[in-house]
Amino acid sequence: MKFVLILAAFAADPTIAFTTTGGILGTATTTRASTTTTIIPTSPSSRGTLLRLDAAADGVANGTDKKKVIVLGGDGFCGWPTSLYLSDQGHDVVIVDNLSRRNIDTELGCDSLTPIQPPGVRVSAWKEVSGKDIKFVNLDVAKEYDLLVQLIKDEKPDSIVHFAEQRAAPYSMKNSKTKRYTVDNNVSGSNNLCCAVIDSEVDAHIVHLGTMGVYGYGTSGGEIPEGYIDIILPGGREANILHPAYPGSVYHATKCLDALLWQFYQKNDQLRITDLHQGIVWGTNTPQTIKDERLVNRFDYDGDYGTVLNRFLMQGAMGVPLTVYGTGGQTRGFIHITDTARCIEIAINNPPKAGERVEIFNQIAETRRVRDVAKLVADQTGVDVNLLPNPRQEAAENELEVSNRKFCNLGLDPITLDAALFDEVTEVVNKYKHRCDPTKILPASFWNKKRAEECASLDPNSVKIKV
Ligand code: NAD
Ligand code: USQ
Description:
Layout: E1 3-7, E2 23-25, E3 28-30, E4 38-41, E5 49-53, E6 68-72, H1 79-88, E7 92-96, H2 100-108, H3 119-130, E8 134-137, H4 145-155, E9 159-162, H5 169-172, H6 176-200, E10 205-211, E11 228-232, E12 238-242, H7 250-269, E13 273-278, E14 280-282, H8 308-318, E15 322-325, E16 331-336, H9 337-349, E17 359-363, E18 366-369, H10 370-381, E19 385-388, H11 405-409, H12 419-432, H13 449-454
Helix pairs in contact: 1-9, 4-6, 6-7, 8-10, 8-12
The protein binds nicotinamide-adenine-dinucleotide (NAD) and sulfoquinovose-uridine-C1,5'-diphosphate.
Keywords: Signal
Family: Belongs to the NAD(P)-dependent epimerase/dehydratase family.
Domain NAD-dependent epimerase/dehydratase: 69-354
């Protein structure tokens, strides 16, 4: 399957050109090939970027078997659009979620900028729009072990996609309660999943969402390989081992612990496991979630759960100076939400064989430095860039070079940061800006006492939105 990016105004604008293998599209850097048939606007009224989707390329439409897929954490930011995408591709999807993310919103006194509907409304809207069923099961993967085993026995999934973790680094560093919750929830959930696959005697392929943060950022001394690194042991013996873990938060540490669990259960029980080391996801809607307002994806903008590019796009649209931490010298990997869903399907379609070591992919499109991302947004929106004291204990500057060859070799043609695609997010923000609580925009979690003291002057009430 191929997606292609086009600008709605291309016919009228001679400065905008297509490329087939990547390069410059108009004045914005982007990559997409262009053999598509169907056009799906990112919003019914969009005059900006369109995402085109050729339904006849991979997945079931391309002759791949229809799969039964359980999506753990399928109510979340990545899980919901992935569930719809897999369903749209003809797979049979069961969502499992304990709605803990929605409860954390209540705990933090904030909410998704977009008005996400309850799971029941979401799945019936999808049925109405697509004619396809998605089952929703409210279950705690970390605590309700027997129900999890029974569900796997009943559904006999081919694949289980595991998104069901506490995923915010800042929330995981808030206090000892959130640190302990993050470890308990994430590590127990992953361990339960392995045990449940073994106990149910269903040969399901586990596809886990890991993070680029397991590697540390730029600690390899060169390009970060996909999961495994060649080393020379004392005595000169060559080996290829899991890349050393170097987490930067309690959350990232849980992903390192997960990686060890995957390695152990693969070795001991021949489980088939794929670990996807994903970068920061940006964007909001996908060609599926845009089909009906009741399907809208969640949009986190607050200091704990909002991730950097979506936060900057939201701030830009609301006339709020961009919240760059420190010098903005951190380099990170990025991927668009539409590609998250695509990568999951590619992983599902390419499981390791029984007995093969854990398959690891780096799920990113590109790397960018935070201050460069801020400049891109500031240039487009005219807002100022604010350099704030850094609430995090992290390197002020880092280089990052990452291999993503495995996904590209399997047909991913990744979407890269593109000012035209920013319009989709800006449109969403403008539509729902009345739902924003500006007091939630500044950082609210600090990595240690020193960082908290350095940030003491930040006043949440000082942030004003331009109406
Ligand atoms: P999210 O918080 O929006 O979604 C996670 C979902 O899992 C939520 O709906 C939550 O209710 C559910 N959940 C959590 N613990 C659970 C449990 N014990 N039982 C059942 N359900 C549970 O997060 P997201 O942004 O969709 O991220 C999904 C996964 O992708 C995470 O594992 C995260 O580490 C990984 N990831 C996310 C990003 C990103 O930028 N968002 C980047 C890289 C990796
Ligand atoms: N940052 C700012 N200003 C902000 C927000 C963040 O300068 O307003 C900086 C941070 O200091 C950090 C970088 O931007 O250096 C990225 O922060 P982030 O919150 O966007 O991303 P992170 O905390 O790393 O976590 C997110 C997801 C997590 C996922 C991870 C992928 O929440 O689930 O695992 O991205 S990665 O970063 O590749 O490890």
